[in-house]
Design goal:
It holds the Pfam family DUF4796_C. By secondary structure, the protein is of the alpha+beta class. Helices cover about 25% and strands about 20% of the residues. It has two domains: about 35-80 and about 230-240, no CATH class; about 85-205, no CATH class. A six-stranded antiparallel beta sheet has the order 4-9-5-6-7-8. A four-stranded antiparallel beta sheet has the order 3-1-2-10. It is elongated, with a radius of gyration of 20 Å.
Length: about 250
């Protein structure tokens, strides 16, 4: 379970749906998530869907006038932070039992994590042992683990070999799941242990759970929660502005 900061004011909650490690349909929101455009007009910060791409065709949803913006005021494209984990290689993935809806701070759904190989197969530790899944992670938060310059064919082959060997260790059998759970490890312990296994093989210092969580996970889950709240509002009402509530 990844700890969330309960002292922060939560964004507008998304509507949860019921599923199990599978994509879900948020209330009134089509399957899949697109980009948002953020711009200033009518003394407000406004969010709309990512089209039209050409600012010359952009109209303010409040005053209905064409938006004329200078170079420094150009709309900012906000990319969807939730992606298909099976389309990403060599990454740390975060999903939930409720799919994207589980990323809301209002939701108590436990987050589940895994590691993808070079072909998008996700390895995760459960009470059945290490699972290798080719589906079920279509709505995930992605933490890339490999720098673009290091993403070579030979590295991918080594990554896959190491991940398979690591997953077959007796440490990660199903009958030891409760033992790991007692120490608060489970899926997170498996994923972080593999990351540190790779780092040690490269002569690097291992990373602590606290550091990895604060630097790579919390800011991404918070951004996803805010994005979902705004995106759902835009899909239902056509736009979102900070005059109505706080956006990302």
């Amino acid at each position: 379970m990844i700890v969330r900061d309960k002292n922060k004011a939560p964004p507008t909650p998304v509507t949860p749906a019921t599923s199990c490690f599978a994509p879900v349909l948020l209330s009134g929101v089509p399957m899949g998530f697109g980009d948002l455009l953020r711009f200033r007009h009518c003394d407000r910060t406004i969010f709309t869907l990512g089209e039209p791409v050409d600012p010359a065709g952009l109209r303010c949803p409040i005053c209905r006038q064409a938006v004329r913006l200078g170079l420094m005021e150009a709309p900012v494209r906000i990319h969807a932070p939730i992606r298909d984990g099976h389309q990403t290689a060599c990454s740390f993935l975060i999903t939930s039992q409720l799919g994207a809806a589980g990323f809301s701070e209002e939701n108590e759904s436990e987050l589940h994590v895994g590691i993808s190989n070079s072909k998008g197969v996700v390895f995760s530790y459960t009470e059945l042992g290490v699972q290798r899944q080719q589906e079920g992670w279509e709505q995930s938060i992605i933490v890339p683990l490999v720098a673009p310059g290091d993403d070579t064919l030979s590295f991918r082959m080594l990554w896959d070999q190491q991940l398979e060997t690591f997953s077959n260790l007796n440490t990660w059998t199903g009958d030891r799941f409760q033992e790991h759970r007692e120490f608060g490890s489970c899926c997170y312990g498996f994923a972080l242990s593999y990351i540190n296994h790779v780092m040690r093989s490269e002569g690097k210092e291992p990373i602590t759970r606290e550091h990895f969580t604060s630097q790579y996970i919390l800011r991404r889950t918070e951004a996803a929660s805010q994005y979902l709240s705004v995106y759902q509002h835009v899909c239902l009402h056509g736009y979102y502005s900070t005059a109505e509530s706080h956006g990302p």
